[in-house]
């Protein structure tokens, strides 16, 4: 009997949790898993009641990278035709916030997957790395670019060129991990943070995410212009009126997403 390799849960109001579920292969990302992650994230993002998404694995692995057994015999054209970058772009382009809850290994494509998320919460014994050079390839799902942007050239080179793994604490100190927590608390902390975000006005959250992501690769002026347009637009939202009125009236705001 086959088991679903990606699961979707609703651990709290406004929160969807997408779980990679191939424990016997350390959650290695075969094509089925990749497609299902992209499909579930897209579906959850389209769901009006979902305001924030948690992406996670299990205790032993967030994901140990692309499935080496699946791709070992493939040639260039077959790799090209797999279209994996498009799937990862779907995840990176998710309009709603995605929190990676990382326990165990986040290696190769697994580290790259975590880096497509907006926030990374890691357990103290989690291990990160881009070990692709050890098997004759290089990071191919954005690792050379996203790791470098996250931690800077010299740390990125140090790990990409040796393939060495690094601890969650080192990842935290380098700025790759947003929050470091005891292993037992990873999922709970990610869900709690997702709940906190889910209670905030969704239009403001979506525009804040967009401004950060678009601005990060743009010139400062362009990023600032984008931010200004976004905040001006938010002054047409009911949630802006409600949020400010609630502050003045000393009550809890009721956000509707309009
Ligand atoms: N692929 C396939 N199977 C894997 C796997 C992987 N990445 N990682 C682990 N497994 C399987 C093992 O083969 C083993 O299977 P059985 O022998 O039981 O059948 C099972 O999971 C348990 O693994 P271990 O016995 O090794 O478990 P340990 O706890 O001792 O070690 C480990 C865990 C994660 C440290 C170790 O398994 C490991 O080093 N795994 C490989 C890590 C790795 O090299 N990751 C990078 C993969 S390359 C592209 C875009 C992206 C990519 C490629 C192309 N394009 C756009 C074209 C991405 C490439 C990669 O990610």
Question: What is the gist of this entry?
Answer:
This protein has two domains: 6-198, 2-enoyl-CoA Hydratase, Chain A, domain 1; 202-249, Lyase 2-enoyl-coa Hydratase, Chain  A, domain 2, CATH 1.10.12.
Walkthrough of the structure:
- The protein has twelve helices and ten strands.
- By secondary structure, it is of the alpha/beta class.
- It folds into two domains: 193 residues, 2-enoyl-CoA Hydratase, Chain A, domain 1; 48 residues, Lyase 2-enoyl-coa Hydratase, Chain  A, domain 2 (Orthogonal Bundle), CATH 1.10.12.
- The strands form two sheets. Strands 1-2-3-5-7-10 form a six-stranded mixed sheet, with helices on both faces. Strands 4-6-8-9 form a four-stranded mixed sheet.
- Strand 1 and strand 2 form a beta hairpin.
- Helix 1 packs parallel to helix 4, helix 6 crosses helix 7 and helix 10 packs antiparallel against helix 11.
- The radius of gyration is 19 Å and the shape is globular.
- It starts with 5 loop residues before the first strand and ends in a 10-residue tail after the last helix.
- The model has no long low-confidence stretch (mean pLDDT 96).
- Bound molecules: 4-(N,N-dimethylamino)cinnamoyl-COA.
- 4-(N,N-dimethylamino)cinnamoyl-COA binds next to helix 2, helix 4 and strand 6.
- The site of 4-(N,N-dimethylamino)cinnamoyl-COA has 21 residues, from helix 2, helix 4 and strand 6.
